[in-house]
Structure to design on (223 residues):
């Protein structure tokens, strides 16, 4: 089933409650971009945002994307803050399996992400354990970038490999997803769509989320 995970990186924080409430019916997930200024050349959200929103959004899945050099350092703080999914980058760690096991031992879902230039093969050894694979379709660090078309084929490769496992692994795509390209993303088998600027920078975020979800479902029907 196709789901949206709107990225708060593009939220108008002065209107946070209003914007989150207006898209809620289309967004069972919220995507929190955590950046340390080292793994990516930017700083973004912190655990305080997760902690602050948690009590008000009990039914929303908090999808936390750790774009940090030392994801192990952040596991417990974000678990305490209320994360449901912790996704780290395979490029940032030596022992991905140990990290996956630590995340699951915290009772959370474990995600593994790969940057545009990282081949799908880098995460295949972990498909027997992860709950989510996050394919970056932009270089991580900033919202509002253009989707890199060369990343699309990786989605199809990973969909095939995930299906071979027979496990229920979410295939999430993140970066530059818009209403006019999401068809190509879900047609190749993605089922969890991150969208930041396409939703929260739109004049009408509710309408944008609804149209994005509908376009995503059209692609899924062609998968
Ligand atoms: C980029 C983040 C993405 C980003 C998506 O480093 O991981 O989640 O916020 O924003 P858009 O959808 O605007 O590309
Ligand atoms: Zn992200």
């Amino acid at each position: 089933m196709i789901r949206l995970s709107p990225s708060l990186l593009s939220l108008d924080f002065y209107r946070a409650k209003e914007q989150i409430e207006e898209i809620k019916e289309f967004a069972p997930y919220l995507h929190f971009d955590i950046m340390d200024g080292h793994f990516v050349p930017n700083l973004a959200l912190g655990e305080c945002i997760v902690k602050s929103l948690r009590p008000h959004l009990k039914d929303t899945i908090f999808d936390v994307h750790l774009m940090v050099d030392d994801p192990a350092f952040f596991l417990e703080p974000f678990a305490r803050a209320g994360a449901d999914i912790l996704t780290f980058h395979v490029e940032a760690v030596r022992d991905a399996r140990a990290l996956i096991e630590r995340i699951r031992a915290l009772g959370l879902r474990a995600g593994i992400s790969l940057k545009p230039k990282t081949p799908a093969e880098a995460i295949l050894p972990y498909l027997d354990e992860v709950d989510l694979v996050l394919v970056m379709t932009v270089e991580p660090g900033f919202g509002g970038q253009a989707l890199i078309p060369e990343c699309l084929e990786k989605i199809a490769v990973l969909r095939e490999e995930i299906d071979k496992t027979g496990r229920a692994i979410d295939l999430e795509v993140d970066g530059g997803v818009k209403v006019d390209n999401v068809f190509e993303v879900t047609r190749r088998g993605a089922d969890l769509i991150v969208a930041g600027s396409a939703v929260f920078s739109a004049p009408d975020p509710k309408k944008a989320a609804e149209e994005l979800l509908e376009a995503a479902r059209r692609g899924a029907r062609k998968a």
Q: What stands out?
A: The pocket of zinc ion (ligand 2) is lined by residues 7, 31, 33, 65, 174, 194 (CB under 6 Å). The two ends are 12 Å apart (CA to CA). Residues 111 and 132 are 4 Å apart (CA to CA).
